[in-house]
Every structure is written in structure tokens, then in C-alpha cells.
Amino acid sequence: MSEDDRQRWNSRYQEQTGAREPSSFLRSLADQLPRTGRALEVAGGPGREALWLARRGLDVTLTDVSDVALERAGEAAREAGLDLRLQRLDVETEPLPLGPFALVLCLNFLWRPLFAAVPQVLAPGGLFVFAQPTRSNLQRHPHPSARFLLEEGELPRLLQGLELVSYTEGWTEEGRHEARLVATLRA
User: Fold this and answer.
1) 46 CB-side CA count, 13 A
2) CA torsion sign, 2 to 142 to 115 to 65?
3) Terminal CA-CA length for the chain
4) Residue 54 needs a FRET pair 20 to 30 A away by CA distance; which of 34, 43, 73, 91 works?
5) Which residues contact 173 (CB under 8 A, 6 or more apart)?
6) What is the pTM of this model?
7) Handedness of CA 6, 8, 11, 15 (dihedral sign)
8) Would the CA dihedral through 109, 112, 115, 116 be positive or negative?
9) CB atoms within 10 A of CB 55
10) Cα dist. 15→11, 25, 39, 80, 141 in Å?
11) What CATH number is given to the structural domain containing 126?
């Protein structure tokens, strides 16, 4: 990712105000997700999901390319009395933090080579949770643009070295057309 892209994300997060709830998809998985161990959120922005995971008892590392997003996540963690490890990371040019992680989470960020990297940092029996809009999303929304969207049915084919636990694709309660999966590294 270029420095211009980093600055664009910094500006975007600088303009955002107010706290937002964690993803309804992530919350729907509450019974399946670990409550102890290490978790990694990739491209997690200001940390709404990372904070939710930390409240559940996980030792969470939040990565993002945006300094502003990480600063906001750090402030929110301090205000909530939570520990959150923050790492500025351009996942397109830098390796993921060293595992093993009981959970790796990536929502609303598509970089296909990530699917080859996840098994290297996921603990045996650990979970990988991923969600991203598909091209069908363009029927109702102009963003994200097609270059950041999955083809219909593409997501399960991207898995490498992981076993599919669940997969859905369709219109969500939030009105987006998403592909969502949970996968595991066989123990």
C-alpha cells in the first residue's frame, strides 16, 4: 500500500465520529469463538471488533495501516480499561505478527494473498473469521468498488490449508451482499 493510501485511510478515520457496535456477524459467532488465548485482527481500523474480543477475555493484537485508527483504538482501550496490542502493519508488504493465534479475524478488507498467510499464524484448532462484500453489493451500493469485491462463490476457493466450518453468501441485515466464512486449522 502506498503512503498516499495510508494518508487516505488516516483522513477517513480522522473524519469518523462516534463509537460503532462490533459486527453483527462477529457477535453472531459468540458461542463458537474462544474466550481465552491470543487473537489477531487484520486491518481492524479503530478496533471495534478487537475491543469486543478483548472484553471477552482474549489477548488481542490489532493491526492496521492507519496511525489514526490505531490511536483511536488505543484511546478506546484505555477508556475501557482493556489491554490491546496495536501494530501498524501494511499487510500487503509486511508479514503478519508471529502466532500462534486462537483466532484470526479479517472483516471488510480483501487482499487475496492473506489466505495463504493465515495458516502460518493460526494455532491448531484455531478459527479464521472472514467477511467481505461481493460484486452483487454493487446492485445497491457504489462502494466499495469492484476491485475490492469478491466474485460470487469465490471465497471458499481462496482457503488454503484450512478446513471450512461455515460459509454463507447473501444480503445481510445491514443491506450488504457479503460472503462470510469461518474456517479452522485442523488440530
Assistant:
1) 18
2) positive
3) 34
4) 91
5) 24
6) 0.92
7) negative
8) negative
9) 13
10) 6, 25, 28, 22, 21
11) 3.40.50.150
- For residues 184 and 177, give the distance between their C-alpha atoms in angstroms, rounded to a whole number: 24
Q: In this structure, is residue 105 part of a structural domain? A: yes
Alpha helices in 56-185 (DSSP H): 67-80, 114-121, 155-158
Position 42: which residue type? V
At position 99, the amino acid (one-letter code) is G
Q: In what helix (H) or strand (E) does residue 28 lie, and over which residues does it extend?
A: helix 24-28
Residue 172, all three cell numbers = 445481510
The Cα 114–Cα 158 span in angstroms is 9
Whether residue 71 lies inside any domain: the answer is yes
Question: Can you give the pLDDT of all 187 residues of the chain as single tens digits?
Answer: 667 776 776 567 667 766 578 999 999 999 999 999 999 999 999 999 999 999 999 999 999 999 999 999 999 999 999 999 999 999 999 999 999 999 999 999 999 999 999 999 999 999 999 999 999 999 999 988 888 999 999 999 999 999 999 999 999 999 999 999 999 998 7
Its domain, for residue 117, covers: 3-11+21-184
Which amino acid, one-letter code, is at 30?
Answer: A
132 domain residue, yes or no: yes
Residue 69 one-letter amino acid: A
**Does residue 63 sit within a domain?**
yes
